[in-house]
Amino acid sequence: MSHILIIGAGGVSQVATVKCAMNTKTFTKITLASRTKSKCEAIAKFIKERLNVDINTVKIDADDTKAVVNLIKDIKADLLLNVALPYQDLTLMDACVEAGIPYIDTANYEHPDTAKFEYKLQWAKDSDFKSANTMALLGSGFDPGVTNVFCAYAKQNLFDEIYEIDILDCNAGDHGYAFATNFNPEINLREVSAKGRYWENGKWIETDPMEIMFKWDYPKVGVKDSYLLYHEELESLVKNIPTLKRIRFFMTFGQSYLTHMKCLENVGMLRIDEVEHNGVKIVPIQFLKTLLPDPASLGERTKGKTNIGCVITGIKDDKPRKVYIYNVCDHEECYKETGAQAVSYTTGVPAMIGSMMVANGIWSSKGVFNMEDFDAKPFMDELNKQGLPWEIIEMDPNSNRIVK
Ligand code: NDP
């Protein structure tokens, strides 16, 4: 019996809100609030037509903590799911502390003016959440999110000690555009154009963007070029799995995407600082976002699959072990069910499940937490029920050969 307040009405919100409306035993009331109310109303209309569930819609500026506190109190929300942008994480966390309700998000805080991806400022709010007698659950998307839960499940059930993790993120979807991003273009392009970084033998090693590439055979997708990126779950997993000797993150990109990105970068379109254009100040990457297709509109035209998972190496009963835990998701099936493509789906479903874990008190504590801080099993069970089933493959510990 919970009233969930969902903030943000983009592609991820479309899926998270639809999934909450499919789980009305947990989410007895849903309020969807965002900057542009018409986007909330479009999601509400979809839910009414598909599921015959009514949800409330509200206009809100998530940068205005006071307004959010007032809204939480007015509607008597029990928990807040932030699927707006990473820029809003801190103001929304502060609102939850003031109102004394749990906070859930899918991406770590970023300041619009600095491409820094770190949990520092969010972890620093641990004592605020403890004093307010409530909790924050950080990074409940797919990566971060499900990837952390896969690692936690392996640590809790499959290994005595974990030594190496490679997180492998493949989107083999085709939307037919020469260039488009599958989630918010500004956030996506900041992430993939940043320096690469991985952790080995106790220290971080920096690489140039896209410097390290390897080919991986993704089950049900095929062999894809996979590039090393820095990704935020590396930071919390290094902290929470102290036996780790190495952790890396790889994402697939096609040559066309990389060529477009390089050109945009070369002409300054990925700049995040202000420039003056005809007497008007603009931020080039924000202007580019205006020109690119809205990710929420890609659903109808995207075909193909995603495959995201973790290859984990360590020991069990004194013997070396290597497992591959992954999920495969089909863009067209996601669209049929929720009106959104698989990148929004693989983020929105875990956002709902994380909220469900908190709403039902299955994951319950005081303070600020990452996904791997809790028992992974109930979350893994829900993934199977809510549309993101996973597989575990046993691999030869000394090669990439599948054993069973
Ligand atoms: P979109 O850009 O499609 O949607 C963002 C929504 O937030 C829009 O409706 C936007 O409003 C709203 N918004 C932005 N600023 C404010 C504000 N100040 N006040 C109120 N509402 C605001 O993004 P996505 O749906 O693609 O992504 C949502 C989140 O999911 C992002 O944080 C992204 O980083 C994260 N993500 C996480 C992944 C994971 O696996 N962990 C993967 C993919 C995404 P408006 O419509 O007016 O612009």
TrEMBL record:
Keywords in alphabetical order: Oxidoreductase
Species lineage: Bacteria, Pseudomonadati, Campylobacterota, Epsilonproteobacteria, Campylobacterales
Protein name: Saccharopine dehydrogenase
Enzyme kind, highest EC tier: oxidoreductase
EC numbers: 1.5.1.7
InterPro entries: NAD(P)-bd_dom_sf (IPR036291), Sacchrp_dh-like_C (IPR032095), Sacchrp_dh_NADP-bd (IPR005097)
Keyword Cytoplasm found: no
Cited Pfam families: Sacchrp_dh_C, Sacchrp_dh_NADP
Organism name: Campylobacter hyointestinalis subsp. hyointestinalis
GO molecular function: saccharopine dehydrogenase (NAD+, L-lysine-forming) activity
Domain Saccharopine dehydrogenase-like C-terminal: 141-388
Boundaries of every Saccharopine dehydrogenase NADP binding domain copy: 4-137
